[in-house]
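To close the chapter, one final illustration. This time we ask the reader to focus less on the individual chains and more on the assembly as a whole: which components sit near each other, and how the overall shape emerges from the parts.
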Amino acid sequence: MQRQIPMFIVFVSGLTMIVDYFFPRVPYIQGAREIFLNWGRIALTFAMILGIMNLLMSNLRKVALRKAGWIYNVILLGSFALTFYFAVQYKMVPSGNTFITHKGTDMGSSGTMSFASKIFLDVYTPLSGTIFSLVAFFIASAAFRAFRAKNIEAILLLSSAIVVMLGSIPFGDSLFAWLGLEHILGHRNFSWLSTQIQQIPMSAAQRAINFGVAFGMVFMSIKILTGIDRSYFGGGGE
Amino acid sequence: MIERLQTLDRRWIFLILFLAVAGSLLFPHTLHVAVEPYVQKAYDTLDLLKPGDKVLMAFDYGPSVAPEIHPAALAMLRHSFERGAKVVMYTLWNEGLPFLDASIQHVAVPMGKRENIDYVNLGFKWGGLQGSSVIEGMGSNLKAVFPVTHEGVPYDQVPILQGVKGYRDFKVLIAVSAGSPGVDEYVRYANARYSIPIVAAVTRVSAPKEFPYVNGKQIYGLCSGLVGSAEYEELIHHPGLGIAGLFALSVANLVVIAFIVFGNLIYFWGRKSKKG
Amino acid sequence: MSHDLGVWVAALLTLAALSFLYKDNLFYRIAENIFVGVSSAWVFATNIHSDLIDDMLLKAFPHAFHQPGPPDLKPLWGGLIGLLILSRLIPGWTSLSRWGIAFVVGFQTGIQLFGAIVGNVLLQLNSTIVPLFVPRNLSATLRNGLGTLGTFTSLSYFYFSREQKGWFGVVTRLGVWFLMISFGAAYGSTVMTRMSILIGRLQFLLSTWLGVIHT
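The assembled structure is written out below.
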């Protein structure tokens, strides 16, 4: 029974979603689908709570045991508690508050903001943006140290990277015109070449990858619905 | 000399990049913006909107990529309002709400648009990592997914939402998206089933995934990255942060290209001298 | 230079995160842990509002939230399913949590199955199976031909049931070339995204914080 009941639940909830594709105007089926979607959204939130609780408990454990670097866990827990307290209280964006005061994303602060908004603007935004932007530096480093035109595949990769980077910026066209190379492309801009690469070979290869992903999703879905794949049980389905 | 260059401390590379980008911001130049066909298609689709048409707009991104696509969101929202469309806005990203709010403050309010009449903010709704439960649910019953607006006004009391049941009541879906849930899921669940036309603004890094959908006409137009944002700003004649960042981006691209070229020159030079 | 405390906090946190480029250090680790704490709390708080309050409690008890309409108790079953998932935290109750997880997995799988078939397979096949010869239009002929060739050769590279030798090896090699062009273009796109984010941060430092440029 420990295995049969979850498998039955998977089958019924999955089937309700599928049947709706074939009988979209049948009120009972549509009603059941809407209820299931509503329950699903609520249940997913509890799943997220489970994840957050795991994060908090693992950090609390490290603090309690005074493990190496426990002070960082205290910082994490403190910033969590502070943000949660204010964010849950103020519902994030009280009416009329401006998050971004200075024409776009440069995050100037407004005097009317709630404390939760200030945390988002002055703490979360700079950290999120900067941590993601660090990759820019490592990409530049990789460009210098790792990208070598050793064989035909590497040459194709490097050339298309350079064409796309150069073709996407206005400098590409100016440089091409300055070098007097426009006749090579039948008097077209360099950006035309970049667009062609993205529209034809890149799109074709990406479509192949998308097909692979889609077939994977379809077969995995069928395996889950029919109970062949039970990895969601944890521990191999037992 | 070659060995020193081959084993160059990467922090020098970091410094060069930092100085190049900072320098280009300190000494900016205005560049001519050429519009890509995909961006033109996005513009043309929104330009066909008529006064009173309803548009659904998703702000599915956060602060990490905002410099890239937030300008496009502002430009597309402005364009929709200029065409007289009514815009229903929401986000499936926890971090999207502040940007949705900012777009209202920077575009809707200065243009004199009225809340709940010309636009409405439905707020944030979480539907899991793929957002499928929300995107599917919005197709047949928008009210069930968003029973109240972000300000707490019941769905039935919002004038702009009168008679709106789902995707079929909208002319177009503008998906400003930085990942999942985002434009992929809209293509899979909203366009495939309800045939709602999609116009997307995505990060440059996720653009390659979307090109097959544009070619397959599952996405009507695509505005990708800071360059796409700048191009859209150019099309609506309203320069913003997209155009402001274009020179710096151009310099950054040139620096990376220079690194690739110099890296290879040093590599082949080193190999030649070893053989010699 | 800004006189706003919030801008200074944002600027110092930006510099703390950037300091990782020199080497891993105390300031970066503090910034990193603040980031994890703040982001998880933000996600938690927003989800509670959007799904637990708006989707469940507000529908079940509208009058408690000053909303019109009759109570609808059906969403509370969603809460019960959620509680089943949380029962994983109680030793010995793991099997109950599987029921909740099974519901979530089942309904998501059901949605995903047809979304993938229609959106990613059928409609994409439409744009792959196109005329390979378009009379009096060399550009369209080339475009369609290369597009179809690229898709099929790239797909063939992922076919591992046959050794990639002989004529099939030639086909898969061609597929690899298409993939390499695609990956190169994707690398170029990645560079542009990351640089744009960096530009955003530097615009903040130079404009909002230091006030030396005006954007």
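The mean pLDDT of chain C is 91. The two ends of chain C are 15 Å apart (CA to CA). With these observations in hand, you are ready for the problems at the end of the chapter.
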